[in-house]
Structures are given as structure tokens and as C-alpha cells.
Amino acid sequence: MREMTGEERRAEDQRIRSKFLIFRSADFSYLDNAATTQKPECVLQAVNNYYRTQNANPLRGLYKLSIAATDAYEAAREEVRSFLNARESAEILFTRNASESLNLVAYSYARSVLHEGDEILITIMEHHSNLIPWQQAALASGALVRYLEPDPNGKISEESFRAAMNPRVKIAAMHQVSNVLGCEQDIKTFARIAHEGGAVFVCDGAQSVPHRKVDVQELDVDFLAFSGHKIYGPMGIGVLYGKRELLEKMPPFLFGGEMIDYVTTERATWAELPHKFEAGTVNAGGAVGLGEALRYVKSIGMERIQERELHLTRLLMDGMRELPHVHILGSASPEDHHGIVTFTIDDVHPHDIAAIFDSHNVDVRAGHHCAQPLMKFLGTPSTTRASIGLYNTEEDVKRFLLVLSGIREEMGYGD
Ligand code: C6P
Asked: Is residue 324 within 8 Å of 348, Cβ to Cβ?
């Protein structure tokens, strides 16, 4: 892709930012996109429009409004299917977020296949949402969770994955992009090796789906989870992709309305996919908002988004490297970061760093980033993280670097 001129870039910045009205309300640099993203006007309007013109309980009513609500909800599912290139929309389940999606697999799939002595293979870098559900499934079944460790760039090597596979491994689960180091794993290769060894492969796509093209057929993962709110959609709506043959065999995760076929006083049978896994009244407004967010992202283009984010990551990391007391975690190459740059500053606590940034209207995240085993592995209890989204600009990066360069001085250090 051709490098944009500065003028073209500023025009694109302007076009994109004009769709996010929150940036008109105050002058701030939002660099916490890995936690959640701001919402474009079209998403807010789609949710608003749904509640104004189509709201009824979907999947139940036989009247026009309920049918309109059902149609809107199912159209959003089709939008997600197309975005992930799943074979059929029945393989797309709506959940509340990536955490619930991963819990669904850990409760429904894992607990029905795991036996004492089986193994679940994950990495030390997982977000707690892709770690605790497996720990709990292991505790319930007598299985063991085993952890792969990355190289200094945050990469899990093919050799270490292959060496860890054995006939006891029934499930391998891994992030595609780390929420701390920003590095990407070779999911396609790991899914293939897992399958050769007879295991299913679960991909945590929470930090990849918003930043790069993810094609579930190409990756050949068995399950993939992501959250709507990290890809410019509303909070409270998430997705679990699962292969039909696995979802068909799995017991429901939650029980209640609309997930049944027939109920007697003794027992119940289950609805067809995907409804078997969507008990109770669904978040139709959230699904509609997510569908619109995906349309919006597609209208910009995943390649453009990647290029914009990489350009800013380069500027950010180049500037950070000039500051001797600042240390970037993970790879030195901006290509390996997917817009996520986590760092420490000598002698300054990450909470102080984040507070100073906040006092200059720059939003970053500080803490363990819901990845405490990784923090322990890296030998630091907490860090500070800047994360880039599609609406960030060179101005945001300049402001970030200016504040960063003055933090030690603000904390009273002379150098
Ligand atoms: N990470 C962060 O600031 P939820 O909270 O369910 O939408 O997403 C969970 C989740 C799962 N996997 C990865 C890799 C994630 O990064 C997250 C969310 C946010 O890093 C909030 S802790």
C-alpha cells in the first residue's frame, strides 16, 4: 500500500474524527483503545434507530414489530458472519463480551470432554478471561493447565508448541494479539498442530479482530471470541464463533427462554443453533450496534486501519526510544505491536505515570492489565500501556511524547 502524504493523512484524520462526536466535547488524546473504543455516530444512531423504530422482544412475537426486531438481530449476526468469514450464521453466537464467550467454551465444551489427567494448553501471556475459565474447568475435571512461555518478543515458537502437544492435550487456547505486548501469534500453525494432536483450538480474538483481518476458515480455529466494545461497537455485546459440528454436540451454557425446543415437567430439548446458546431476552440493540460498527470498519478498510495504526505506532516507539529511562516491553519492531505499547519508566510507579498523563488529558492504562501471570513472568507487578485506535492522529502521539518526556522531572528527578 502506498504511503500517504501528510496532507492526505490529515484529510483522512479529519474525515474519521468527525464521525466520533466525543472528540468535539473535549480536547483529549484517547490512548486506551485496547480497553475499549469510542463509538462513531453511525453506531449510536443505529442503536437509537433500533429502539425508536424496531424494538420488541425478538424471536418470540408474531406481530410486525417483533418480526422487525428479529430481522434486525439476525441481520447483525449475518454481518458478523461475513466479517469473520464463517461458513454460516448459525456458527455465530451473541454473548455479552469476549469473557462470556470464553466461559461458554470452558463450561459447555471443556467440562463435557475433560477427564482427570487431561491437559489444557495455554500461554503465560493470556488475559485472565482466557486463563481463569480454563483453571476452573481443570479444577472441576481433574485436568491440568499447562503454560507456554514466549521469547523476549512475546512470540510462542512453533517448536515449543509442538513439544508441548501430547495425546492428553484436549484443548489449546491462545490470544491472537496480546493485550500487553501487542505481539501476534501464528494461530493458523498452532491450530493445525493442535488438530494433528487431536485437540481443539480456541482463539481469543479480543485484541486482533479490531486491528487486522481475521478469517476463521483460513485460520481453521474451532472457536474464536471477541468483544463488540473494542471494535467501535456498544458494550454488552460479544461474539463466539464456533464450528457447527462442535456447537451441535455441546450442551447449553445457560438455560431459560428461547433456547428450548420442547419442555415438560421432567426434561427439555434444545433449540437449533445458534439459539441453543442464547438463553433469555437477547441484546438486540447491542447486536444492531455491533453490526453497524463492523460495516463502519469495513467502509474504512482493515488494511487502511492497519496502516494508520502502524504509522502511529512507529512514531510513538521512535519517540519513546529517545528517552533513556523509558523501557518498552516486548519486540523492538512496531510491526509486532498492533498499536499496543506497554512500558515502564525507571523509578516511577505506573499509577503515577497514568495520573500525570491524565493531568495533561492523555488517557492511558496502568496496572497489571488483567494479565498477572504475565506480569510475574516479566518480573514487574505493573506497567503503563498506550494503545492506538483508528481515530488517533499524529497530534495524539506528539502530545503523548511531550508528556512522557517530562514525567521524571514532574516526579522530582533531575535527569
Ligand atoms: N482487555 C484491556 O484493557 P472483555 O472484558 O470481556 O470485553 O474482554 C476480555 C479480554 C479478553 N482477552 C483479551 C486479550 C483482552 O484484552 C480482553 C480485555 C481489556 O486489556 C480490559 S481488561
From this structure: no
Cα distance between residue 301 and residue 308, in whole Å: 11
What is the grid cell recorded at 116?
Answer: 482427570
What are φ and ψ of residue 249, in 5° steps? -80, -15
Terminal Cα-to-Cα distance of the chain (whole angstroms): 41
206 CA to centre of ligand 1 in angstroms: 6
Domains and CATH numbers, the chain: 6-37+301-410 (3.90.1150.10), 44-298 (3.40.640.10)
Going by C-alpha positions, the residue among 32, 2, 27, 25 that lies closest to residue 354 is 32
98 lines ligand 1 (CB under 6 A): yes
pLDDT of residue 71: 97
Question: Ligand 1 pocket test: which of 370, 375, 382 has the largest number of ligand atoms within 8 Å of its C-beta?
Answer: 370
pLDDT along the chain (415 residues), means of 10: 86 97 95 98 98 94 94 98 98 98 98 97 98 98 98 97 98 98 98 98 98 98 98 98 98 95 96 97 98 98 97 98 97 98 97 98 97 97 97 98 97 88
What SS3 string covers 139-192?
HHHCCEEEEECCCCCCCCCHHHHHHHCCCCEEEEEEECECCCCCCECCHHHHHH
Beta strands 200-204; 169-175: pairing state: parallel
Q: Does residue 152 have a cis peptide bond before it, meaning omega lies within 30 degrees of 0?
A: no
- C-beta of 123 in contact with ligand 1 (< 6 A): no
The CA-CA-CA angle for residues 135, 96, 300, to 5°, reads: 115
The pTM of the full predicted model, rounded to 2 decimals, is: 0.98
